[in-house]
Amino acid sequence: MSGSLLFDPGLQPERTELAWRRTALGIGVGSLIALRVLPAAAPADAAQPLWLAPGLLGVAFAVVLWALARARSGRANRALLSSRFERMPGAGLLLTLTVFVTACAVGALVLLVALAGGSSG
């Protein structure tokens, strides 16, 4: 079987890339919703740019995630199609997403605590 590929060139690599695209799209849509909702929920004396920042950062992250996922998919396909050993992409993209989501959760918690503290006083 000397001319055969080392992997099945089916739809698995494409499905993986599409999953990353859906993730980036979900973050982008959620961030656009945050751009619409957060400024409306802001207290009257709050600085408006501060309430726009989470949405803008989310949209920017979605664009970066989309580009990184596309590059990762290209590297994985090249590694799978190569006749010599090439290193597969690692879990760096997943780590990046995990750090972003964790930072969003912490930021949301801080925001809720700040709003609860401001409304009880």
Describe this structure in a few short sentences.
With 121 residues, the chain is mainly α. The protein contains 3 helices and no strands.
Considering the chains and any ligands shown, give keywords for the structure.
77% helix, elongated, DUF202 domain-containing protein, transmembrane helix, membrane, 121 residues, transmembrane, mainly alpha
- Helical content, roughly? over 70%
How much strand? under 5%
Q: If helices are DSSP runs of H or I spanning 4 or more residues, what is the number of helices?
A: 3
Find the structural class using helix and strand composition: mainly alpha
- Largest beta sheet, briefly? none
Order of helices and strands: HHH
Query: Number of folding domains?
Result: 1
Q: What is the CA-based Rg, rounded?
A: 20 Å
Strand segment count: 0
Taking pLDDT < 50 over at least 5 consecutive residues as the criterion, the unreliable ranges are none
The geometry reads as elongated
Give the terminus-to-terminus CA distance: 76 Å
Q: Averaging pLDDT over every residue, what do you get?
A: 83
Give an overview of the whole structure:
- With 121 residues, the chain is mainly α.
- It has one domain.
- 77% of the residues lie in helices and 0% in strands.
- It has three helices and no strands.
- Helix 1 runs antiparallel to helix 2 and helix 2 packs antiparallel against helix 3.
- It is elongated.
- The mean pLDDT is 83.
